[in-house]
Amino acid sequence: MAKRTFIYGAVILLAANFLNRVLGFIYQYLIMTHIGGEAFGLFNMVFPMYMFALVFTTAGIPLAVSKMISEAVSLQNYSRARSIFRTSLLLLTCSGLVISVALYIISPLLAERFFPDPRVLRLFLICTPAIFVVSVSSAFRGYFQGMQNMLPTALSQICEQLVRVSVGFFSAYTLLPRGIEWAASGLALGMLSGEIIGLFIIILQYKLQKTKKSSHQNESLHPIQTMKELFHLAYPVTIGRLFSSGLSTVDAMLIPQRLQLAGYTAREATTLFGQLGGAVFTLLNFPSVFTFALATSLVPAISEAAARKQFQTVKLRSAQALRMTIFIGVPSLVILFFFAEPFSAFFKSEGTSSILRILALGGIFSYLQQTSTGILQGLGKVQLPVIHSIISAVIRIPILFILTASPQWGLKGTAVAYVVGFFISSTLNLAAIVHYTGMPVDLREFLLHPLMGGIGMMLAFRLFHPFFAFHPLAFLLEIILGAVLYFAILFFNGGINRDDLQRIPWLGKFLR
């Protein structure tokens, strides 16, 4: 197996996730403009419950598989790596089947008792088979990520998204005349179809790969012992993800209800909730394609370095990942803040521009939370992001509960609550990384350099915006010029140097 750096893996996932986000961006635009926020609001009520069941099914095992396989490979124990994969595949197949069948049976009860809108039942019934499909697929993705081969995961995600977008929109558009709930069911059908194709693609790549034998004989642990190790690594992640998915489920039930107390009708509240997820968070999360790629590739990369006791490498990779997150996050949020109105109008959600601006002010903490969680998981401190999320939620939920029900705040209060949560979680994560790695925090690199670039970018937008306001497409050129100016400032103030550029795969070879 060719040696792969974590930056190489991150770039592979970055390219795939960027394409997926572009497709997803187009998908959300088509939904919001041709299907409507109400249909997406219904789908968004069911999706957190689906994710909660999926997290319960996979139990954090894919991440544990990735970590255990990367450690085995670092010791050239490939027979051990294959044993870990086979055990996890059996475990996830069984758990996925059991949970899918159980959820299908109790779906009518869940729709009736826990959600304010009974129209979600049909969506539940369509989503439940996807739990089994994703469970099996996650075993293969954990295996490839542990081998630090991100290409199979990237290809399966691209194919999955292509099918999800095409089938989802076509089904929703075709079923819309039959009612909003039917259109929302079409979105669920697109998700199920995409997951099936994604599983088929990653299995095909597993069959085509060339396996490598160990350079010396190693005994593999008994499957029962492997399961014990998997669960030992997985249970803190499981608790954390169950907690996170549970919070999303609570938000899906709580936000529409509190909006009704603020004076909105049930359908208006559902539509606003759909616009929050379909427009605002689609825009806010678009730049996180980069942090997701970093977080995914960091776990096996840092685990491998820690297993070899290469603590200087751990420190270096952690600092690189956090710097990259900030350098990409700052210009993205400046763009979202300045162009909040045209972006919201693009999604036919003009009333949410102020919500987007509030979230943009604190969005950098959302991106840092994702990257720092990946670092802590790679260090084996998987319980810390869970604890930090719990602390964050204890503060965030009451703020959301109170402010969202206020007529003066409404969704603005929801946005403020999310920003507070992002800030608390990311700050606690960063403090833990500094404590366990000894990573120095250079405020000039982490704060001053990107802040100077962001200020320069904002000033350029304010200066040149009147000249680009003649057509919406001209905003794209304005954004490109602003991004070029931002990175030029970073290059001249030392925030980015030639060594940083040389580490980027493909681009770096032209700079040597």
How would a crystallographer describe the biggest sheet? none
What is the element string, with H for helices and E for strands? HHHHHHHHHHHHHHHHHH
Approximate strand percentage: under 5%
Q: Taking all residues together, what is the mean pLDDT? A: 81
What shape does the CA trace take?
globular
Share of helix among residues? Answer: over 70%
By DSSP (H or I, 4+ residues per run), the number of helices equals: 18
What structural category do the secondary elements indicate? mainly alpha
> How many β strands by DSSP?
0
In short:
The chain is mostly helical and 512 residues long.
Give a written overview of the molecule:
By secondary structure, the chain is an all-alpha fold. The protein has three domains: 1-206, no CATH class; 250-440, no CATH class; 441-511, no CATH class. The protein contains 18 helices and no strands. It has helices at residues 6-35, 37-58, 61-74, 78-113, 121-146, 151-175, 180-208, 223-261, 266-285, 288-307, 311-338, 340-346, 353-378, 383-404, 411-437, 443-468, 474-493, 498-502. Helix 3 (61-74) runs antiparallel to helix 4 and helix 11 packs parallel to helix 16. The longest helix is centred in the middle third of the chain and has 39 residues, at 223-261. The two termini are 25 Å apart. It is found in: Cell membrane. One of its GO terms (cellular component) is plasma membrane. Keywords: Cell membrane, Membrane, Transmembrane, Transmembrane helix. The chain crosses the membrane at residues 7-30, 50-69, 89-111, 123-143, 182-204, 276-300, 321-340, 352-370, 382-403, 415-434, 446-464, 470-493. It is a multi-pass membrane protein.
